[in-house]
Task: inverse folding
């Protein structure tokens, strides 16, 4: 039992170590600053949309289905990009506005810096524009 | 003598157009000017009732606005209950002196979807 606990701790420390290398954050050309410099980021957070693109009201609890997560080596996201992960927009009638960054680690492209963007998808399948990208510095 | 002919509903060219305000659309059609025998309706008042339905056979009609002499109706997709992302069908009938025309040929329309705005304030914590 103790051995299992130690193993779990070791895995956690390893992930945290990778994280500390990978999430320095920085101001980015074409993208907003991802993190406070020196901080260890573990969560990607956002504000859910409350309007449609035509400015009419949107109820994110009722009108959103899920979010899509995109990663690129540059901040120029396009419709041709494929999303790497999804998360439901609502969980147990509570708005979802966070995502664990560790889930995106397998999709990091090579290079010291990546860019993240997300899109909201409505219950009718219509997708929002890309969010303002943010930079994600990593080794 | 009462006219037995129905108003000829020459509404083949009606169309849906986008009005200036967000999410408002306008359905319009050509005015009816003759009876089915080709004689002129003249100065008689013609009223129109527009409908929409999800059924291409024009059953289960939902009224679009109220009856009136205008040859267009402006409507809101959401308040009209139209299913976004689906095809619906418009039709219309004319009434002269209590006599209804047949329904106009259906106009199909793909009810546009509406995209959410982008999530904002994306950040890593």
Result:
């Amino acid at each position: 039992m103790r051995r299992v606990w130690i193993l779990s701790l070791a895995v956690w420390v390893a992930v945290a170590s990778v994280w500390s290398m990978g999430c320095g954050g920085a101001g980015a050309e074409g993208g907003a600053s991802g993190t406070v410099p020196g901080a260890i980021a573990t969560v990607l957070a956002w504000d859910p949309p409350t309007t449609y693109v035509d400015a009419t009201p949107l109820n994110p609890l009722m009108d959103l289905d899920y979010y899509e997560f995109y990663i690129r080596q540059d901040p120029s996201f396009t419709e041709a990009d494929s999303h790497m992960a999804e998360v439901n927009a609502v969980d147990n009638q509570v708005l979802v506005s966070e995502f664990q960054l560790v889930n995106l680690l397998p999709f990091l492209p090579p290079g010291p810096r990546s860019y993240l963007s997300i899109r909201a998808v409505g219950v009718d399948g219509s997708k929002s524009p890309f969010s303002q990208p943010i930079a994600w510095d990593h080794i | 003598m009462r006219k037995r002919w129905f108003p000829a509903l020459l509404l083949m060219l009606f169309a849906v157009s986008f009005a200036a305000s967000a999410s408002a659309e306008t359905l319009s059609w050509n005015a009816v000017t003759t009876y089915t025998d080709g004689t002129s309706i003249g100065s008689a008042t013609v009223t129109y009732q527009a409908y929409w339905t999800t059924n291409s056979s024009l059953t289960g009609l939902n009224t679009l606005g109220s009856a009136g002499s205008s040859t267009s109706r402006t409507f809101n997709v959401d308040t009209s209950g139209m299913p976004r992302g689906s095809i619906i069908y418009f039709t219309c009938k004319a009434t002269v002196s209590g006599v209804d025309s047949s329904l106009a040929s259906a106009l199909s329309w793909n009810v546009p979807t509406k995209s959410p705005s982008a999530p904002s304030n994306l950040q890593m914590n």
Q: What stands out?
A: The helical segments of chain A are 2-22, 60-63. Chain A has one domain: 2-137. Residues 1-31 of chain A have pLDDT under 50 and may be disordered. Residues 2-22 of chain A form the longest helix (21 residues).
